[in-house]
């Protein structure tokens, strides 16, 4: 294919050179160098023969006494002028060569566009699984790839259509017969194109202002993000400013920056003063205010929770009936993972209106108290029960030596006494493991001391007086008997 194109181009250039040389010859030719061939049928008389031959150049000039009389000429003649033929042929062939060159350039441009198109498609398919950006959290990689491919196809179609339009207009403009069609094709795009260029030129000052405003806002956002990251990672320390506040504060300032950017951009937007634009703005504002009450409430609650710092990521907390570690905090919700690997999502507005227990903070700052309650009958001395419970708390892992375990008798019921064993730990994440080991040790210790663990329901049944069932009455017997 490449060899054919090169050969065609070479032949076209040779033809163009030949016709250019012919044009040079035609332009420099003189009348003496032009042979005019005349085919004539002439009737003569003896008196004008000499004059005719002299005029034809084949005989001497006539004598002074010779008289030339008018003659009657009936002829069919064809005058072939080399200059005229050369010019007509050159113009026609020149137009054909230019048309062929335009066609060749058009085909080459389309070929280049197709090659670039397929190279870009191959690059997209190679890079689609290697890219990792924030857009993947919004649109999956498959949809992104399809969108890019569709966008590139549209660009390719527009470029090829533009090239074909220019080719058709140029090709038709070469020949006088089709110049009118070429002019009409040109007028189809001239009006919209001129209007577009004038509109862009008139809007250019506003466009420059928008670019400057966006550039300043972008620079400020990057600076704020860098500062927030340094504070959050501890590289920059601000007195009385918790590092956990850095990213939320950045988000707040970013929202304020975006709001001010929009305020400055609004007067420079196209048609910003039109009634339609203002109506759409009012409609969106009303829609946002009516439909985002819960959303705004969660956002505000999220920021309040952030600055209150009731818990951090990784803390073990209890919220309502849910106990688990905090795995995510954002402006809308908080997520915790329970011991059963259940992820519970709690809106921030709910957290603001409910009680939250932070086991991690309690364990680190004060020592978290874990307790187990047992029920023992009154026939077992309390000293023996206390000793068995203290024995169960000895040599347990993750238990603090100071303060030491303590036993509290929390109640005296009708048929049993309530005892509570309290131990302390500084590792809240081991709370469930500690409870499991503690209950096992209590059971082993009571079995060793031969102390029976009472169940309140069973004890209440045992202590009630025995009542025999009612006798079955025979027919006719009185119930009083």
Can you tell me about this structure?
The protein has 481 residues and is of the alpha+beta class. Among the domains are: 99 residues, no CATH class; 52 residues, SH3 type barrels (Roll); 96 residues, Alpha-Beta Plaits (2-Layer Sandwich), CATH 3.30.70. Helix content is 56%, strand content 11%. It is built from 13 helices and 8 strands. The strands form 2 sheets. The chain has a 5-stranded antiparallel sheet with strand order 4-3-2-1-5. α1 packs antiparallel against α3, α3 packs antiparallel against α4 and α4 runs antiparallel to α5. The chain is elongated, with a radius of gyration of 52 Å. About 13% of the residues have low confidence. It is found in: Cell membrane. It comes from Elusimicrobium minutum (strain Pei191). This is Mechano-sensitive ion channel. Pfam families: MS_channel_1st_1, MS_channel_2nd, MS_channel_3rd. Belongs to the MscS (TC 1.A.23) family.
The largest β sheet comes out as:
5 strands, antiparallel
Radius of gyration: 52 Å
Helix content: 55-70%
Q: Rough shape?
A: elongated
- What value does the average pLDDT take? 77
Q: Can you count the beta strands?
A: 8
Catalogue the unreliable spans: 29-80, 458-468
Strand order of the largest sheet: 4-3-2-1-5
- Total of DSSP H or I helical runs spanning 4+ residues: 13
Structural class: alpha+beta
Distance between the termini: 124 Å
Could you give the order of the helices and strands? Answer: HHHHHHHHEEEEHEHEHEEHH
Indicate the proportion of strand residues: 5-15%
Subcellular location: Cell membrane
Main location: membrane
GO molecular function: mechanosensitive monoatomic ion channel activity
Membrane topology: Multi-pass membrane protein
